[in-house]
């Protein structure tokens, strides 16, 4: 199960997104959909914290790698999963 905690954190409107839980083949699509929605809403003013995310299989890793690549391309800040 994934937990998304999204909050506005500072006066300039940075959105902080903390994702925790297990990411695997069963919820990789949900993960991709949720981070895409947040990214569209927040733009480059988002900080993603995946330090509490446990990626358990190749589908999960593929979803994380795709997101990190896209986020960094647009200037986003991503803290990788602890088991990276």
UniProtKB/TrEMBL annotation:
* Organism listed in the record: Georgenia halophila
- Classification of source organism: Bacteria, Bacillati, Actinomycetota, Actinomycetes, Micrococcales
Which CDD domains does the protein's record reference?
Answer: STAS_anti-anti-sigma_factors
User: What InterPro entries does the entry give?
Assistant: STAS_dom (IPR002645), STAS_dom_sf (IPR036513)
Give all residue intervals belonging to the STAS domain.
4-78
> What PROSITE patterns has UniProt attached to this entry?
STAS (PS50801)
**Pfam families assigned:** STAS
What's the protein called, per UniProt?
STAS domain-containing protein
């Amino acid at each position: 199960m994934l937990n998304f905690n999204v909050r506005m954190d500072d006066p300039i409107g940075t959105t902080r997104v903390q994702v925790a839980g297990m990411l695997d083949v069963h919820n990789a699509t949900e993960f991709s959909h949720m981070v895409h929605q947040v990214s569209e809403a927040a733009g480059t003013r988002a900080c993603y914290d995946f330090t509490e995310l446990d990626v358990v299989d190749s589908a999960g890793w593929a979803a994380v790698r795709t997101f990190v690549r896209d986020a960094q391309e647009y200037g986003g800040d991503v803290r990788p999963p602890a088991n990276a």
